[in-house]
Each structure stands twice: as structure tokens, then as C-alpha cells.
Design goal:
The complex is a heterodimer. Chain A is mainly α. Chain A has helices spanning 2-12, 41-59, 70-90, 98-114, 127-149, 167-206, 213-250. Chain B is mostly helical. Classes of the chains: A mainly alpha, B mainly alpha.
Chain lengths: 254, 74
């Protein structure tokens, strides 16, 4: 549906390509219809990010050297960074969920950074991909909250400090905001990555006009630099919000 | 006609991005103001800074999403 619409837009507009063309899901082999099992460019780039993670973190630190090699020190830096974040935000008892959070962070980070390679596909710009991650966190956190705290988990919505008249109203607002969490959690990541890549392509479209091309190329460079920053920050933000939600599940009484 | 109205709506929705910019600027500016008064406490609050930035930015992204939907899905 979207692809058809994009094709129509392309025929009408003056640009050689449409800024959102880069997000069309295509099968790698042939032009057949896309089923859930079809290998597409999305699965290709998600697989490549997994391979990159394995290459750096498993193969890079295989030697377990006391004086780390370069790859090993990259791995150690990222590991230490995330470990400290989990410990700071969720507390000591959150550390046992560290592997899950580390997995999320590494996947998002590598998918974001591989998406910055020209002509690659940005897997995290698909709401389908980020929704699985975001709703996964939501379901895990909710189940964990009820398993660990029982019905006391509902105390998360009942502010004891608020005046008694306001408490039911605040509870309604808290419930709504709790259920909006996975939506905003996933759309934030997808939207940021999609918007950034679309902006680069818009500038690239202007680069075809000779008059404005120097400005456009400068613009592409600047936005690309910003995107390098955003790719890291969004992975960080997704992980730290996961930690915050996890903290709510572990200590619902604040 | 309806398509053109959707385009106008998309442009109006993009105002939300500017509003989110104000929010992000407020968060970062207040952080900086506080950090310059008490630099020793600043390092401990970077996580809070990023959470605040993320919440402020999310609403701008929602506005962007609405305008994308109006442009390409409606």
C-alpha cells in the first residue's frame, strides 16, 4: 500500500527518488510477495548487526587477555557502561536482569550504526521491529511486577502522598500513562531513526540541483554527524527507559 | 481536494516538532543552568537529563508521525 503510494508520489514529484523510498521492504531474492518467512533487506541487516555483535563481543574477547586487545577493550567499555547504568538506575537487585538489557542495547546500537552505512537498510526505523522490542519490555516488566510483588504492584498507580480526593484521578492518569509506555517507547526509537534518515535523503534530493548543491552537501554532512550522535543516544535512551520501567516493577512503592 | 487538506494538516502537525524543540531546549537549558551552579552534582544527573530529553522529544516524534500518516497513509 505504502510502496504503491510512494511510487505514485515519485511520478508526480520533481525529485529523482522519494525520501521514504529507503524504507521499502524488499525480498533479497527475486520480487515475490513478502511473507513472514521471506528473507528481506530488513532481516539481512538485522542479521548483519547480530554478526557484528558476535564478532566484537564473542570473538573479540575470546582471548580473555589481562591486557585487553583493542576489540576486547571496546567490549569491556560497553559492558562496564551498561552494567553501571543498570546498577545505578534499578539498584543492586536489578543486576540479574542485566543480560536482557545488554542484549537490547547492543542490538539497537548496532542496528542504528549499521543503518548509517549508505544504501543499507535501517532496521530500527521499522515500527514493527521496535514495537516487538518495546512491547517485549512492557510485557516482561508487567509480568515481573506481578510475580515479584503480587497485587501490591497495583500500588504503582495509587499515589499515597497525594491528597485523598485527587488519588482516583491520578490513578486513572497513571494507568493511561502506563499503557502508553510501550507505544512511546517503540515509536520514539523508530521515529528518530526514520526522521533522521528521511532528512538526509531530502538534502540528497536538493544536491541534484547545481545551484544549491554545495549547501546541500554541507547539510548532508552536518545531518550525518547529528545522526551518528542520535544513533548512540537513542540506543542509550531506550535502554535507560527499560531500566526505569524495570525499577518500577522491582520497587513499585517508589 | 481532500488530499490537499491532508497536506495542510500535515504541515500543521509539523508545528508540534517546533513545540518539542522548545521542550527539549527547556530541559537541556535548565540542566546546564543547574550544572554550572553545582558542577559536582552534574555527573549524577545525566541519566535524568536523557530521560527528560526523551520524554520531551517523544511528543515531537508523535507530531512527526501524525504528519507522515497524513501525507502517505490517509
Amino acid at each position: 500500500m505504502r510502496a504503491k503510494h510512494v511510487a505514485e508520489e515519485k511520478a508526480e514529484g520533481g525529485l529523482v527518488f522519494h525520501p521514504l523510498d529507503q524504507f521499502i521492504v524488499k525480498p533479497i531474492f527475486g520480487d515475490g510477495p513478502v511473507h513472514w518467512y521471506t528473507p528481506t533487506n530488513v532481516t539481512l541487516w538485522m542479521g548483519l548487526s547480530l554478526l557484528a555483535i558476535v564478532a566484537i563481543f564473542v570473538l573479540g574477547s575470546r582471548g580473555r587477555a589481562i591486557i585487553p586487545t583493542r576489540l576486547q577493550s571496546i567490549g569491556e567499555l560497553i559492558y562496564g557502561f551498561i552494567y553501571k547504568m543498570v546498577e545505578d538506575v534499578t539498584g543492586k537487585d536489578g543486576v540479574k536482569y542485566f543480560p536482557y538489557i545488554m542484549t537490547l542495547f547492543l542490538f539497537i546500537l548496532f542496528a542504528n550504526y549499521l543503518a548509517l552505512i549508505p544504501t543499507s537498510y535501517s532496521a530500527t526505523s521499522m515500527i514493527a521491529v521496535t514495537a516487538v522490542l518495546g512491547f517485549g519490555v512492557f510485557i516482561v516488566v508487567t509480568i515481573l511486577g506481578f510475580v515479584l510483588n503480587g497485587p501490591a504492584f497495583l500500588g504503582l498507580f495509587w499515589m499515597k502522598d497525594a491528597p485523598a480526593i485527587l488519588r482516583p484521578i491520578i490513578a486513572v492518569i497513571e494507568v493511561i500513562s502506563y499503557f502508553v509506555r510501550p507505544v512511546s517507547h517503540s515509536i520514539r526509537l523508530a521515529g528518530n531513526i526514520m526522521a533522521g534518515h528521511a532528512v538526509i535523503k531530502v538534502f540528497a534530493g536538493f544536491a541534484a540541483l547545481t545551484v544549491v548543491s554545495p549547501v546541500a552537501i554541507l547539510g548532508i554532512t552536518a545531518i550525518y554527524g547529528l545522526e551518528v550522535l542520535v544513533a548512540g543516544i537513542q540506543a542509550y535512551v531506550f535502554t535507560i527507559l527499560t531500566c526505569v520501567y524495570l525499577k518500577d516493577a522491582l520497587h513499585p512503592a517508589h | 481536494m481532500e488530499g490537499q487538506l491532508a497536506h495542510i494538516g500535515a504541515g500543521l502537525a509539523a508545528i508540534g516538532s517546533g513545540a518539542a524543540a522548545i521542550g527539549v531546549g527547556t530541559v537541556a537549558g535548565n540542566y546546564l543552568a543547574g550544572a554550572l551552579r553545582n558542577p559536582s552534582a552534574a555527573a549524577g544527573q545525566t541519566a535524568t537529563l536523557f530521560i527528560g530529553l526523551a520524554f520531551a522529544e517523544a511528543l515531537g516524534i508523535f507530531a512527526f508521525l501524525v504528519s507522515l500518516l497524513l501525507m502517505f497513509a490517509v
